[in-house]
Specification:
The protein has helices at residues 3-17, 24-40, 45-61, 70-85, 112-126, 141-154, 167-181, 198-211, 226-239, 256-265, 286-293, 299-308, 312-323, 329-341, 345-350, 356-359, 370-377, 381-385, 392-402, 406-427, 429-438; strands spanning 100-105, 131-136, 157-159, 185-190, 215-221, 243-247, 269-273, 281-283. The protein is an alpha/beta fold and 445 residues long. It has three domains: 3-85, SRP54, nucleotide-binding domain (Four Helix Bundle (Hemerythrin (Met), subunit A)); 100-290, P-loop containing nucleotide triphosphate hydrolases (Rossmann fold, 3-Layer(aba) Sandwich), CATH 3.40.50.300; 307-438, Orthogonal Bundle (434 Repressor (Amino-terminal Domain)), CATH 1.10.260.30.
Length: 445
Amino acid sequence: MFDNLSDKLERAFKVLKGHGKINEINVADTLKEVRKALLDADVNYKVAKTFTDTVKEKALGQNVLTALQPSQLLIKIAHDELAALMGGTKEEIYLGGNPTIILMSGLQGSGKTTFTGKLAYYLKTKKGKKPLMVACDVYRPAAIDQLHVLGTQIEVDVFSNKEEKNPVKIAEAALKQAKDNGNSVVLIDTAGRLAVDEVMMNEIAELKKAIKPNEILFVVDSMTGQDAVNTAKAFNDRLDFDGVILTKLDGDTRGGAALSIKSVVNKPIKFIGTGEKMEALDVFYPERMADRILGMGDVVTLVERAQEQFNEEEARKLSKKIATNKFDFNDFIAQLQQIKKMGNIKDLVGMIPGVGKAVKDMDINDDAFKGIEAIISSMTPEERSKPELLNGSRRQRIAKGSGQGITEVNKLLKQFEETRKMMRMMNDKNAMMKLMRNMPKMPGK
């Protein structure tokens, strides 16, 4: 996400890095390029101008010109202002009420129905809630069917009534069922239109008045750029919603919506959608997003995703197997599955500082592990638990069974053995100390 904006901002700040001295003129030139980069990313003109004016004022006020590393200090100021522009701190979703009623709003195609499923999954798995999803899009039977498919997929109840054409009556019946069944959160998916119109606004305003939701969320496709901000303003003027959801941030988005929307409607971005899977939903952290936009990576989110898949008891067992050299292909495939659950591989790699730019043009997709999984699946249970059995004839059989070449099989076995050695060494303090002692002296020592 934001690749083009990140590249342009990096080029803008590079102007300063090349100078032994910087002055008001080259600071102004740099910020002019920053403003151009923001406008190219479809950021609201007034927002872009206010942002660069504030950065310049703070930079000159903090004596950036006489600082030891002026370019880095200017980037730090820009980073803090970017985070402030997007809200400064994360805003939690409100979960009060019994049950909590959350109303979705937005245009058709913004991703409301998919987000409803993602949020239900998030509340169920991360917050321990018992959600009920309600299909109130009475104009699109496909939207009702989609919600039922998602409900089956994530094992969450769905309330719908295709015979009833009044969204208010559907919502009221759903609330009664939720109270009877002990659902702690009710998520109401509403109808969208291709454009903002009076009929749609009246309908959702009536829904708001009747059910009195605890939280109204405005769902918007981030790829629509400045249009997203204009739509948000129209909805907010009528509904006074509580938060924004930016969907499709994994696409080729220019970032304008994320950077402009808070300033224009003064409502926080609460979640971002980063893929099609139900797990691809992140709480929005302005500081972390500023890190990513300025090419600094996002290690905190990467670590949090890893911790979500981390099981302390399993980790202890794994550590014991590594120490006794019993780490096998069953463990190897289990680790791969955990990595896959963390999200899109390219997105994960991009969170590592300095790596995002290096991989942006590389084709890294979620099928990257398919060949490895096919090879391991073609092994017998005994071969998976005893890799030393894999002689030449067994390797030929595995290659044929997996549809991979013998070269790929040999390559995997070599990588597995190297991984096993490294893991054993990292688990063995004495081996690590020996390795450190045997390392060649650094030049000049």
